[in-house]
């Protein structure tokens, strides 16, 4: 080694920010619904005037009327665009990215490492995250879209080979705490005539029916994406134009002084309220997640399932898949108490979570 470069970057917990954004919207008057699927579009005189929605929990269908409908369904935007205009060209190319999670001692210290060029020319990161090390990622074009994507064997091989080359010791399969995959919606180069490409990062399309589609983009640019799409929605719905507030808007949980409890720090200003709830015990010895947090997720964060709590309110599934499987019955019990559910629901929840989480266990 003859030299090195150090640079600074931002880091966050994506699911926590998504939850805090939803809570911010709620506080500003938005009506949030989870576990509701958009099944089809309602049209009047060729214009979209709402959606047919289905409550996935009860199976009940209902209509939601709206002046503007925004299709922000990630890699699935083309399905709704085709429901609107069957001849629509696909605009999304799906790219899968896989991450492996290892114990912290594989990368001691607080700094991440970036490998700018692997043997096949890719960039690779190893980043300290929630007292673990997350290693990624891959960039694999896929033709299939799934709500629960799975890492391919060659993606895992690539990450394991490079982990052995750059980390403090060679990881063995039993060292891997979790393997997870995500799908990036990348905008195809061409688009069509009415494409309004507002930046290199994201694309907004307005169909002849007025259906607004936003896709591409990154977490890094989410405020700009929101501003651009809401500005277009004002035009489509004929609403009064008001300047977007996002630039000055603090997100729910914002604090001026850092929360001293490291584990509760991602909750920001909610940390004190969580601490005041009964249930300081952990749900599993290998996980930081407490009984009080699960209660909080159910009461304040619309958690409806064991998967919500272990994957999207906490990151237990991504931090230690085997421990999260073992924790599932305890979480189901607390949730059942909070949501007024019975034994049958608990058993079904644990079985569903176990089947899902097996896909995160390294084999
Ligand atoms: C591996 C990977 C690494 C990344 N790294 C970075 C990074 O370092 N920095 C960065 O800024 N960004 C990064 N990103 C990008 C960022 O995560 C994406 O911008 C984001 O996931 C796409 O956001 P989205 O809201 O468009 O789609 P999604 O997050 O996919 O959300 C779409 C939602 O729509 C829902 N949905 C789909 N169909 C329907 C329907 N019919 N009815 C109701 N709901 C529906 C889905 O369930 C989903 O919740 C990364 C992405 C991946 C996959």
What report would you give on this structure?
- This protein has 3 domains: about 35-90 and about 190-250, FAD/NAD(P)-binding domain; about 90-185, D-Amino Acid Oxidase, subunit A, domain 2 (D-Amino Acid Oxidase, Chain A, domain 2); about 265-360, Helicase, Ruva Protein, domain 3 (Orthogonal Bundle), CATH 1.10.8.870.
- Helix content is about 30%, strand content about 20%.
- It is built from 10 helices and 13 strands.
- The protein has helices spanning about 15-25, 75-85, 155-165, 220-235, 270-275, 290-300, 305-315, 315-320, 320-340, 345-360, and strands at about 35-45, 45-55, 60-65, 70, 90-105, 115, 125-130, 130-135, 140, 180-185, 195, 200-205, 210-215.
- The strands form 3 sheets. Strands 5, 6, 7, 8, 9 and 10 form a 6-stranded antiparallel beta sheet that branches. A 4-stranded mixed beta sheet has the order 4-13-12-11.
- A hairpin with a 5-residue loop joins strand 11 and strand 12.
- Helix 9 (about 320-340) packs antiparallel against helix 10.
- It is globular and about 65 Å long.
- The relative contact order is 0.12.
